[in-house]
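Assess this today:

___
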Amino acid sequence: EVVMTRDTDLFVPLTTRTNRINAYRPDAFISIHANSSAQSTVQGIETYCLSSHIFSDFACADTTCLQFKDVLQQRYAKSQQLAELVHKQVLSGLASYDVCDRKIKHAGSQVLLGANVPGIL
């Protein structure tokens, strides 16, 4: 079942988006974008998921911090798997259009961090 976080082309604040995602309690979060660029060389398909650097760049000593770090690591691993699967399928579906593969990229965006489930952009 697909649940849309919005049904019009209006800006929804990032906190509101993550609150809606978490309220639905989905299995995964997929945000689809159709971006544009003034540079004609910037084109193709790219997929973003959490970055492993989010949890590897800081040291933890207490149990709460270690548990939080573990949750982020698990979410990163699942987000990475989701990104690989979806990215491959999108490229395959668009193969006849000779679309540029801009690869899977990593980010620590608010919606990816704020959603309590694996997510991709």
